Structure prediction request, 893 residues.
Amino acid sequence: MTADTGNSGEMAATRQDAAQLEVCGVTKAFPGCIANDDISFRIEPGEIHALLGENGAGKSTLVKIMYGVLQADSGEILWNGQKVDITSPHVARDMGIGLVFQHFSLFETMTVLENIALAMNDVRDMDVLRKRVLEVEKTYGLPLDPDRHVYTLSVGERQRIEIVRCLLQNPKLLILDEPTSVLTPQEVERLFETLRRLSAEGCAILYISHKLHEVKSLCHRATVLRAGKVVAVCDPAVETAKSMAEMMIGQKLVAPDRGEARIPGAVRLAISNLSLITDEPFGTDLKNINLTVRGGEIVGVAGVAGNGQNELFRALAGETEISGDAGCIAIDGTAVAHFGPRRRRRLGAAFVPEERNGHGAIPDMSLSENAFLTAFRRMALSARGLIREVPTRSFANSIIKTFDVRTTGAGAEAGSLSGGNLQKFIVGREIMQDPGVLVISQPTWGVDAGAASAIHQALINLAAKGTAVLVISQDLDEIFAICDRVVVMSAGNMSASRPMDAVSIEEIGLLMGGLHDLEGNVAQTEGGHVDQA
Amino acid sequence: MLIRLEPRRQHSQAMVYLSPVLAIILTLMAGMVIFSIMGKDPLRALHTFFILPVNNIYGITELFVKATPLVIIAIGLAMGFRANVWNIGAEGQLTMGAIFGGGLALLFHDSTSVFLLPAMLVMGALGGAFWAAIPAWLRTRFNANEILTSLMLTYVGVLVLSYLVHGPWRSPDGFNFPESRPFPAAALLPVIYDGTRVHLGSLIALLAVVGGWILLSKSVIGFQLRVVGKAPQAARHVGFRQKRMVWFTLLLSGGLAGLAGLFEVAGPIGQLQPQISPGYGFTAIIVAFLGRLHPVGILFGGLIMALTYLGGELAQIMMGLPNAVTGLFQGILLFFLLACDVLTKYRVRFGSAAPKGRAA
Prediction:
């Protein structure tokens, strides 16, 4: 790890040596914060360059400047050694910069080809376009039927559409923003295959991620951002995931302390034969889900987003009405499927949804009021229909203190807290109610590493006290770090549970992809390994 | 050239409370311009409109008389607006309250019982709540938009009253005028300041302010309706039922509007007649927003809007201005208030938008 940010010595060389793209001293300030502070780095042709950093480190701002969505306050951008003014995304595309967004902008009811045509400037002839699309797909190993409707495609396939769109413009630089957060491990490997092929042809790739093992296996060089500044440039191949994580957060990384092996107690949460037809337009039906969680256990639910995890969470939390067998969900032996959220909470269940703002907390209400929101019954914060202000405030203060929530006080609006601090507050609010069962969805989604490890430790400690904890997460690292057992959801089905110490990441990946394209995935994985070897 | 509204990253908390003040100042300025265009001396017109009505004790008591129904109705409406329940039909609920409560007075027109007036209060509130229950049922059962249904029921309510006073309830010795018998003394609200028209309702309006504040800021149900309004998903997550809030806020605002209607007929008017309200039910919507949906703010908002009624009457008498000036002022005030609120939350950006983002 070196703090050598300026390769400017080499830069003085001839035109042939010019970087594909060089960012020189870019600064961008927003009211109240400097998102990018004098950032410089360069990407060579054919290089796969990682941009690392925690949420809020300034990655997105930098990408927006490079893609012309935002303008830098100062600093310049060189393209092939020439100073350029990227005034809009249009200019960026014309120069040869392609961007694959984290969230796709696709029309569900149109075909792949139609979606691609919509993004092109000059489509004269659909047949010509189809030929070009098939060509690109063949060259870069991106199998995709141009005539299929988008709504029938998996997330990985949807992402391929976005990539094909970019490749049709013959980009010299391809930017991918957190491309793997929605992919199974096998799909990730397939994506890397494509990226390596592109790189071999001289296309530079800027790869934005916080998944360090991916960066390690894919990228040639990494620039690490922290609080808007470049803090390190390193070679991922020689660094460890841990050392890069420490560069990102600027402090030592503490692995959660699992304590002694816990002996699971009685079954506290039991789901049996839970089936549920969704009423959401693009929701997933739950199909015959069976799962038990014992006291003292942390069970992880893995899976690619959109495979029924949200529906499962809503069914467990009581947000969805369940008709039919009341016994399909039981908390400490009491059938609760017909109960609303409040009666379930009275039995000792607690829930933390994935979305903080507007679901787990109300951004423009104070922390006191947010503490009251879920805790007023169990913590006796109301009397005769009125809010008891003093106990409510002291409950909020004790959450703030116990969970080290950085804030100005219990009167601060929840929306004024950073994501990590708000999540600590929400998790703390539930844990301090001493629940018998805790169901938590994406506990550390968009949370900085420091807060994430605090939350992990809190969950482990809670289980140690005899609580049954169910963690729904897309982050396999998280599941491996804290869970005792894991189940995988795919297309509304749940796999049988596997003990954590007897399961491999590949096995989970296969389950995440579902059994239907098992063979294809196996072949692809093997290909990936050969390539790496 | 394009004008865009861009959300402000952080909006000033002070501006939230200053914006009604700013809106009032802007309304006065716009009023001066309008008066000048009409060929009236703007300063004299404003003086007539806003100072003259309240420069004596009687004027001030009249202000309370007009503010009473506005405040009572607006407090009920504000509870609903906080929970995203848009009762626009308070005028109809007011009318129904007057019919239910006033009907009782007509039924016992020779009564001297002290229980008559309390019974009328109850019937008035029930009448208004009943009229608001219809949109509540349509909304919770069929998901019918309460803005439309409550507004449409207003006209039904007014026509019911019109039918009653033209027909079955017409006074037998009223020379065929479309009005009911005068209410018996036992059915009239006691005046609380001799020689004026200020009645018991004004005190009840103050009680409503206090009660509304406790309900909204201190009670669990008030907390629930704020949560339902601000974050429906969070409400569902913790089991605050939206349907219950629809029922609660509509019955509450309907009941309060009905009570206000009864106060009008059992107070200043003293009988049923085709027109019992100069649009209090609609003006109360402006009052609710002027008062920032907060009971104490609503008290001030109610007084200000009451002043426009008084000023309009006086401007009509003394300067020959049309009565429409009252509505004009109310409209301008609402316009500026909404504009100030928008500019508090958003900033205006001129210039072309970024080229229509084709997905990359």
